[in-house]
Amino acid sequence: MSKGLAMLGMVVAGLVAVLFAADLAAKVPFGRASVSADVGFIVSSVILGYASWLLLDRRPA
Hints:
Layout: H1 2-26, H2 35-58
């Protein structure tokens, strides 16, 4: 169960990072409403992905 949640966390982190990186680079889908919010969400998704990776790495198979 916890291995699945760690994988889900990594998937969500990746999707959020791609979504807000696209907004930052090409103004799609939010029209670059706030650059600081985009950067904050990207940083948060990297932290979530890292935490999920650590959890996945420490869980037994």
